[in-house]
Amino acid sequence: MLPTDHACMPVNVSPGKIHANLEHDDQYLCDDVEVDYKQDDITETTILNLLRGRNSPYFPDNKKLNTGPETRLFIYLNGHGGDNFFKI
């Protein structure tokens, strides 16, 4: 999940790319990175339905977690927040 498309923002001096340093040695997003959810696709409801496995029958398999009773899931949230809220 990526909340914004930094690679394609108009202020990006290297359109379509994100670099980890000013020398542009490494590109942050690689060709093999697949983003299933981005920008407006990410809502509280989307995240909760994904974790609960509540999807319509027509929902693409590649956007499902396909977890089972033995699945261990690690969730890392990074962003802005405060007492009793998290901004997505």
Q: TL;DR?
A:
This protein is mostly loops and 88 residues long. The chain contains one helix and two strands, in the order H-E-E.
Describe the model.
- The chain is built from one helix and two strands, in the order αββ.
- The chain has 88 residues and is mostly loops.
- It has one domain (1-88).
- The longest helix is centred in the middle third of the chain and has 9 residues, at 44-52.
- The protein starts with 43 loop residues before the first helix and ends with a strand.
Number of strands: 2
- Radius of gyration, in Å, reads 16 Å
Query: In order across it, which strands form the biggest sheet?
Result: 1-2
Helices and strands, in order, run as HEE
Low-pLDDT stretches are: none
- Counting structural domains, the number is 1
The major pleated sheet works out as: 2 strands, antiparallel
Number of helices: 1
Structural class: little secondary structure
**Shape designation:** extended
**Oligomer type:** single chain
Percent in strands: 5-15%
Percentage of helical residues?
10-25%
Global mean pLDDT:
76
- End-to-end Cα distance, whole Å, is 10 Å
How would the blueprint of this fold be written?
Blueprint: H1 44-52, E1 80-82, E2 85-87
Antiparallel strand pairs: 1-2
